Amino acid sequence: LAKTTQPISMDSYEGQEVNITCSHNNIATNDYITWYQQFPSQGPRFIIQGYKTKVTNEVASLFIPADRKSSTLSLPRVSLSDTAVYYCLVGPGNTPLVFGKGTRLSVIA
Amino acid sequence: NAGVTQTPKFQVLKTGQSMTLQCAQDMNHNSMYWYRQDPGMGLRLIYYSASEGTTDKGEVPNGYNVSRLNKREFSLRLESAAPSQTSVYFCASSADSLTGNTIYFGEGSWLTVV
Fold first, then answer.
1. Among chain A residues, CA nearest to B88
2. Which of its termini does chain B have fewer beta carbons within 10 Å around, N or C?
3. Residue contact A92–B48, C-beta within 8 A
4. Over the stretch B50-61, which tens digit does the pLDDT of each residue have?
């Protein structure tokens, strides 16, 4: 499985755009990049998934450069309710996805 | 939509007691998982079942056993609970563990071992 590295924590003010970058230098050709969001006392929930270039949905955008060795989750105009832990995962593989410690995003009023 | 349902939501055990956490999914998924999450930590995989009839160890299987009862249900058993097993347990499912499909999580089970 490709190992991922992401910042432990980030702070942002409300209304700002937040970019969380994840490194995955050993990503395999058939791996997808998936981001999950976890609020306190809840299970993680899927945010976005991509393979290359850019993917956008109603919640976030995911930017993946041509070499795919990193990816950036972009949250537009964050609010207090976006305070959560964000996990970057890379797969598939022969074993299920492994969650790291994620990035703890704190949004400040 | 129920999704992934796990019971109980809260449980307090004495050291040495046994218990089973139940999990069921209604999405016709092939793969199911059990994770644990300790305070301030990420999720760690305990066991998973890639398909009905198969189970495999994850990162932290010691002290646990699992049963994939059928396609819908995947239970986690603690035979002799220890304080180190105090944690939040999440059951999850996905269509297929080999294709990185979206994983759907239950609401969690808070277990305290005293």
1. A41
2. N
3. no
4. 889 999 999 899
